[in-house]
Amino acid sequence: MRHSAISDSTGHRPSRRGIRPALFYGMFAVLLGGNAVTGTALMMAPDIARLLGGQNELVLSAYEDRLAQMRVEIDRLHSRNYAQAGDMNLQLQELSAQQEVLLEQHQLVRALVTKADQLGIAAVTPAQDAPLELSLETTHSGNPDVAATAASVAQMMDETQMAMTGIAVAATERTAGIVSELGKLGITLDLPDTQPAGVGGPFIAADDALASVPMIEDANAVMDALMLYQAARDSLSVAPVHMPITGNFRQSSGYGNRKDPFTGARAFHSGLDFAAATGTAVLSAADGVVTFVGEKSGYGKVVEVDHGNGLITRYAHLSAYLARQGQSVQTGTPIAKVGSTGRSTGPHLHFEVHRGDKSLDPKPFLDTGKRILAMLG
């Protein structure tokens, strides 16, 4: 590399003891990396918060503005260092651009991993201690080994991309599992439509200068998968697939034809019986609204809850009421106490599921709930 000589006011030239190439490139890398890391952390934080809030269109616009600001800052650094150093390898500029994309990608992955953790999804994540600064490796001659450094940056970018893919796959698989399980019960989920409506225009080839935008679109696609999973998981609260009783109990009778305990003749039993001590809490099997509190012939004291989708659950032979008609309840809300009122041989909960005027076997509902909970861990 050629060094320019500087003369002092007397015309004498100082000794040619310039900065060593390896030291200069190292200082340049640290300066550039430090500014990029700091700039990214400060400017991306508000957008990450909006990303977690689901405002994806605002995120795209905000990121484009901040990417432009970061490019201006990096260009300024390049210009200053070019003026000081003279002829700089253009590949260093390409690496710094790659590093900029990597830093943004890493911030997005951190945000997505945080959201996935909140939803109980454990995803493969990049090494937390992986260095984010552009660390230039050198050859035996002391010059920067651009190829090795580029390979290192590319590897880190692949790792962060793999993390985003892992989150999306896990969320999509769980969503599909919930939809499938509830679909077997005739429950159709009303999930949000993540596809934009009212879009179009002529096909124009992609602009390679906007390389960072697809990365943000990938992150938004992962966030869409997480939002769909969250909606599917939340829908479980309105599906009567949760046990209506806890503690010490046993199933004492199933759904369908059985020997009547009073007459000994064959008779139809329209629900499940769970034998338990008098006073044991009876829980709502899902979110809903209490539509009936009172007595019915043969059932004794009864509470009924409407869960939407045409589904109603009935809890009978109760000893006491804990809910009132018109009350909104959540999954697991205590609504009554086990008893032996009505046509009953001993304290137990009689649990029914109805779609319209037709009774359904509650067992497939409760079994589905167990499978889904096991799938979600």
TrEMBL record:
Domain of life: Bacteria
Keyword Transcription annotated: no
InterPro entries membership: Cell_wall_metabolism_enzyme, Dup_hybrid_motif, M23ase_b-sheet_dom
Keywords, alphabetical: Hydrolase, Membrane, Transmembrane, Transmembrane helix
Annotated transmembrane regions: 22-45
Record-level Gene Ontology MF annotations: metalloendopeptidase activity
Limits of the M23ase beta-sheet core domain: 268-362
Alphabetized CDD domains for the sequence: M23_peptidase (cd12797)
Key word Glycosyltransferase present: no
Protein name: Murein DD-endopeptidase MepM and murein hydrolase activator NlpD, contain LysM domain
Organism (species): Devosia lucknowensis
